[in-house]
Design a protein that fits this description.
Layout (H helix, E strand, L loop, with lengths): L2 H35 L9 E2 L5 E5 L4 H6 L6 H12 L7 E5 L8 H15 L3 E5 L1 H9 L15 E5 L2 E6 L2 H4 L3 H11 L2 H7 L4
Parallel strand pairs: 2-3, 2-4, 4-6
Antiparallel strand pairs: 1-3, 5-6
C-alpha cells in the first residue's frame, strides 16, 4: 500500500468513527428531549448532518415543525435550501435546530440541549437567526465563548474555533419583503466564507 493511500484510509476511518459517535450522541439527545416532553408533548429535533460545518439556529419552532417534529420543516427550510443553493453551499454541510425544543418551554430550560448540540456537531460557524436566538446563544455557558453582537452580515468570533453570523429571524422574513431582503443581505456572507473553506 502506498503511504498516501494509507494516510487517506486512516483519515477516512477516523472520520467514520467521529460520524458514528455524533449520530449516537444526536440520537441520545433526541431521546432525552422526547422523554422530557412526555408522551403528549410536542417536541422538535434538529435536522441535517450531525458533523455539519454550518449550524443554523432559530428561536422557536413553527406549527409545521412541531407537527412533524423536525426543525426547519416547511417554509423556512424551503427558503433556506434555495438560499444555500444560490450560494453554492453543499446542503450536506448544514445542520438546523431551534433553541426551544418542546412546545411551551422557555429558553433557559432548553439551553443545555443547545449546548449539547453544538458540542456534538462542532460546526465551523453558527448562523443565529433573530434577536431571541442571539440572546439565547449569548446566554450559553460555552467554553471560551465571546459575546456575539447584533451586527448582521459579518462572520464574528464565537469561540476560537467557531464563528457566528447573525441574520434577521427567518420565519418573519418569509412574510415581510423588507425583512426578506435584510435576511438575504446578511445570509449571503456565508457564500464567500464557504468558498474560502479549505477542502478536507
Amino acid at each position: 500500500m502506498r503511504p498516501d493511500t494509507a494516510v487517506t484510509s486512516a483519515t477516512d476511518d477516523i472520520s467514520e468513527r467521529y460520524l458514528k459517535r455524533a449520530i449516537a450522541e444526536i440520537n441520545d439527545l433526541g431521546s432525552d428531549i422526547a422523554q422530557a416532553a412526555g408522551p403528549e408533548g410536542a417536541h422538535v429535533f434538529g435536522s441535517g448532518h450531525p458533523l455539519a460545518d454550518i449550524l443554523m439556529v432559530k428561536h422557536s419552532p413553527q406549527p409545521s415543525e412541531l407537527q412533524e417534529g423536525v426543525a426547519f420543516f416547511g417554509r423556512s427550510g424551503e427558503a433556506l435550501l434555495k438560499s444555500i443553493q444560490r450560494l453554492r453551499i453543499d446542503p450536506m454541510a448544514i445542520y438546523g435546530t431551534n433553541v426551544l425544543k418542546i412546545a411551551g418551554d422557555n429558553a433557559e430550560y432548553s439551553l443545555p440541549w443547545l449546548t449539547r448540540e453544538i458540542h456534538i456537531v462542532q460546526p465551523k460557524v453558527i448562523v443565529i437567526m433573530g434577536v431571541d436566538a442571539l440572546q439565547s446563544v449569548n446566554d450559553l455557558e460555552f467554553p471560551l465563548a465571546a459575546t456575539v453582537t447584533g451586527t448582521t452580515g459579518e462572520i464574528q468570533v464565537f469561540t476560537p474555533t467557531i464563528g457566528a453570523l447573525v441574520t434577521p429571524a427567518i420565519d418573519k422574513a418569509l412574510d415581510e419583503q423588507d425583512t426578506k431582503r435584510e435576511f438575504w443581505e446578511a445570509f449571503k456572507a456565508l457564500g464567500p466564507w464557504w468558498s474560502e473553506l479549505p477542502p478536507y
